[in-house]
Specification:
Layout: E1 8-11, H1 26-37, E2 41-45, H2 54-60, E3 65-68, E4 73-76, E5 81-85, H3 90-104, E6 108-113, E7 120-122, E8 136-137, H4 141-144, E9 149-155, H5 161-172, E10 176-182, E11 185-190, H6 195-206, E12 213-217, H7 223-228, E13 231-234, H8 240-245, E14 248-249, H9 257-266
Helix pairs in contact: 1-9, 3-5
């Protein structure tokens, strides 16, 4: 085994570390174990908030820091506590929503509440991806704004994710950030917040720097993380916007793309 050239391995979850059934392959687990044995740290950096991430970390036996909620939350898995948490200005988000709806018509809405046990609220017409993760339906729009939020999700009945994102950014990009985090997942975030924000905070706690970091991802919300890290690796299944800024493209999440790169760097 050769010396591993990075001190920090940052991996997105959905479409990257996780396969379509939300599992992590034995090969990828072994590659990550070899990386940590070589002295590097593995850090999960995901758009999911902590309540939707914790069960995956538990399955991995993961006890380090994780960056959740698109950088809003730095979570200590071993101690099960939030180290940092950034919330969305609800008044500003409401203004942004009204401006976007004035351009494109009514949107279907969902939102992620802040905290270790923050609920995901889902409004009328919002299409939720099938899976075991809990959501709570709401009918009264006032319920959406009744407690601190990390993010708001928006969907349009006819516009694609990329089209909705372009219009929203052009309309309210000076008020909030808009990102595509996955199929059917367009998010409103605090202005300036990104995975790079949370990753830089977590890296500092770990004594690592951008120059020490290799990052893996698959969606446009990973672009800031790639801009921060020394080396960005897009999965074969990644969005074209991310591939365009990646330093390399590996195999897909279904074909152990992370392991392919780590094994090469380890000389396995």
């Amino acid at each position: 085994m050769s010396a591993f050239p990075y001190r920090l391995v940052a991996t997105d979850l959905d479409g990257t570390l996780l396969r379509s059934d939300e599992s992590v392959s034995d090969r990828t687990r072994a590659a990550l174990a070899a990386v940590t044995a070589a002295g590097a740290a593995h850090i999960v950096v995901t758009g999911r908030a902590v309540p939707w991430t914790r069960h995956i970390l538990d399955d991995l036996g993961y006890e380090g820091l994780a960056v959740c909620g698109q950088g809003a939350q730095v979570y200590h898995a071993g101690e099960r506590r939030l180290l940092t948490s950034v919330t969305l200005d609800r008044q500003l988000a409401g203004l942004a929503l009204s401006k976007v709806e004035a351009e494109v018509g009514p949107l279907a809405l969902a939102a992620s509440r802040d905290g270790l046990d923050g609920e995901v609220l889902v409004g009328p017409g919002y299409r939720v991806q099938e899976g075991p993760l809990p959501v709570r339906a709401f009918e009264d729009p006032a319920d959406l704004w009744s407690a601190p939020l990390n993010k708001v999700y928006i969907q349009h009945p006819t516009l694609s994710d990329d089209e909705l994102t372009r219009v929203a950014r052009a309309t309210v990009g000076s008020l909030v950030d808009i990102v595509v985090a996955g199929p059917g997942i367009v998010e409103i975030l605090p202005l300036g917040l990104s995975k790079a924000t949370g990753l830089s905070l977590a890296a500092r706690r770990l004594g690592a720097k951008a120059a020490d970091t290799i990052a893996f991802g698959d969606m446009p919300n990973d672009i800031p993380m790639f801009g921060w890290a020394a080396h960005g690796v897009a999965m074969a299944n990644a969005h074209e916007e991310l591939k365009a800024v990646a330093d390399e493209v590996t195999a897909s999440n279904e074909e152990d793309g992370i392991a392919v790169v780590l094994e090469r760097l380890l000389g396995l």
